[in-house]
Amino acid sequence: LAAEKFSTLSSLVNPRLRPDAEAIKDLWNDMVLYDEHTWGDHRSTASPESQESLRQQALKENFASDAKNRVDNLLWRSMAALADSISDPADTLLVFNPLSWQRSSMVEFDLDNGLELVDLTTKQPVPYEVLSTGPEYHHVRFMAQDVPSVGYKGYALKPASQALPNPTATTDGTIENKFYRVVLDADSGAIKSIFDKELNKELVNTSSPYRFNQCLYVTGADKTPNRALEYSPAVPLPDFTIHGAGSGRLVSVTHQPFGVVARLESSGVNTPKIATEVILFDGQKKIEFINRVQKKQVYTREAVYFAFPFAMEHPQFRYDIQNGVVDPSRDQLPGAGKEWFSVQHWVSAEEGGVTAALVPVDASMVCLGDIFRGTWPREFGSRPGTIYSYAMINYWDTNYAAGQGGDFTFRYVLTSGDHLQPAGLSRLGWDVMTPAETDQITSQDKAMATPRPLDGAQGSFVQVDQPNVVLVTWKEAEDSDGTVLRFLEVGGQASTVDVQTPRVDVKSAWTADAMERKQAALTTSAHGFSFAVKPYQIVTVRLVGTGNV
C-alpha cells in the first residue's frame, strides 16, 4: 500500500512520471497466487522431500519472493522520484510516512562511521541505538519524531560533533516507565508481570502455567484419525502436549534514547533458539515484543503459539476485521468456527473496565481462552482471558509438506487502558503494521543543480481531519482518468470528513463504487474535498487534479 501511494504521489509531483501500473498489477497477482490454498505434488504428504514436492513448493514460494521484489522496486523508485523534488542535498536521510496521520516511528538504517543524524526541523542531533557494526557503518535504530501524514521528514547526515555515548546497561529483572512496571522471567525468556500504573492493575495472570509472550510448542495429532485433522465428532480428540520454552537467560537490559530494551534467550522442543526483545517506550503507552525463532524442520504434526495470559477470568473478547469489529460470543452465525479467529489489526480482552489489546503483527490467527484442541464447540461460551497467537501449524496436508523450518520473526505490541475504543486500537494496529520507509540521498542522486520545489525539512501530501478515518490507498484510476483514494472508517462512527491535498490542485471529486464508477459529485476546494462516511464504511473517491509543484 505504501508503494502504491508513493508511486501515485511521485507522478503528481512530477507529471513526466507515470505510476508503473503493470508492476502494481503483477505484484498483486503474485501475492494472490501465493496465498491460494492449493495442494502440492500428489505424493507431498507421504514424501515431502521428493524432487517434485520440493519443485512445486519452490514454485509457489517464488510468487511471494517475486511480489516482495516488485514492491521494493516500486517503493524505492517512487521515493527516489519524490526525493528528486525535495530541496535536500546529498547526505540526507528522508523518512516517509505512508499513513494519514502524523506519527512517531522507529526507523532502522545503515549510518556511515563518523556521521550523526540531525533533525532538519529542530536542527538538533538525534540519538540512536547501535544494533550491529560493519567495517564502515553502524546499523542503527532511532525514533523519527512527528513525521507528517502521508509525507516525509528530513535528517542531515553530518560529521559527528561528539563520540557516541555508551548506553546505560543493567542486569535488573524489572524495567519500567511512567506507564508500566514489567518483571522479566529469565527462565522462560518471557514476562512474569506487567503492572499498569495508570490503572493500578496487574495485567498478567501470574497463576497461569505460561508466562506472558512465552513460546509454546505443541506435539501430538500424529496418530490418525483425530479431530485436529478432520472435522468429525466420530473420531477421537488429538493427544496434544504443550511444551513451554525454558532454559532461558536474561541477556541484557539497556536504556536507549527511545526507552528501555531487554533482551532474553530461551529454547524449546524443535526451537533451539528463541531470541526476544522487550521494548518499553518513553512517552508511548505500549510494549513491543520481538521474537526471533530458530525452528528445526520436522514432518511430525506440530504447532507453535505465543501465550498472552491476561488477569481476567471471563473477559469480553473483540477483534477487528476488514471493516468492522467482532465479539465472537455474539456476532458469529450458527456453525461458525470458534477455535481460532483471523485478526486484521488487533484483538482485545476487557473486564471490569480494563482493556488489554494486542497487535499480532506477523501472525493473524489467534485462539481465545485455550489453544486449538479439535473440540469444535458449538457455542463460544465463557473463556479465561488468555490470548494465544497461533503462529505455526501443519495439521493439514496442504501445508504439511512445507516442513516449517528456518528463522522466523513474530512481533507483538501490547497496550492497555480504561475502555479502549476501536478507533484508537485500529490506529495503533495500522501504525505498528505499516513501517516508516527511508530513502538516503547520495551525491549521484542530485548531480545536476535544478529547482527542487518541495521543502527540505518536512512535507505532507494528504491531511485527513477525522481520527477514525484511514486513507487505505491512493492509486491511478484504472481508466487513467485521475486518481482513486480509498478510505476506511475504523471507529464505528458516522462522520463528515475533510481531506486536504496541499500539492494537488483539485478540479473535481466524486464518490465511486468499488469498480471506480462515478456516483455523486463531492464538495471541493482548491486543494481538497469532503465526504460523509457511515460506521465501518469503505469510501472510494475519484479525484481529478494536477500537481502544483
Can you put this structure into words, describing what you see?
- The structure is a single chain.
- The chain has 549 residues and is mainly beta.
- The protein contains five helices and 37 strands.
- A ten-stranded antiparallel beta sheet has the order 7-14-15-16-17-26-23-22-19-20, with helices on one face. Strands 13-12-18-25-24-21 form a six-stranded antiparallel beta sheet, with no helix packed on it.
- Strand 22 (347-351) and strand 23 form a beta hairpin.
- Helix 1 runs parallel beside helix 3 and helix 2 packs antiparallel against helix 3 (51-83).
- The protein is globular, with a radius of gyration of 25 Å.
- The mean pLDDT is 93.
Q: Report mean pLDDT, rounded to a whole number.
A: 93
- Oligomerization status of the protein chains: single chain
Instruction: Please report the number of helical segments.
Output: 5
Indicate the low-confidence ranges by residue numbers. none
Number of strands: 37
Structural class: mainly beta
Beta fraction of the residues? 35-45%
Spatial strand sequence of the major β-sheet:
7-14-15-16-17-26-23-22-19-20
Would you kindly provide a brief summary of this structure?
The protein contains five helices and 37 strands. It is mainly β.
Set down the secondary structure blueprint.
Elements: H1 2-13, H2 21-35, H3 51-83, E1 92-97, E2 103-112, E3 115-119, E4 129-133, E5 137-147, E6 151-159, E7 168-170, E8 174-176, E9 180-185, E10 190-196, E11 201-202, E12 214-219, E13 241-244, E14 246-256, E15 259-268, E16 271-281, E17 287-295, E18 302-309, E19 316-321, E20 324-326, E21 341-342, E22 347-351, E23 354-360, E24 365-368, E25 386-393, H4 397-400, E26 406-418, H5 422-433, E27 437-441, E28 458-460, E29 463-464, E30 469-476, E31 483-489, E32 495-500, E33 504-512, E34 518-521, E35 524-525, E36 528-533, E37 538-547
Antiparallel strand pairs: 1-6, 1-27, 2-5, 3-6, 4-5, 6-28, 7-14, 8-9, 9-10, 10-11, 12-13, 12-18, 14-15, 15-16, 16-17, 17-26, 18-25, 19-20, 19-22, 21-24, 22-23, 23-26, 24-25, 29-32, 30-31, 31-37, 32-36, 33-34, 33-37, 35-36
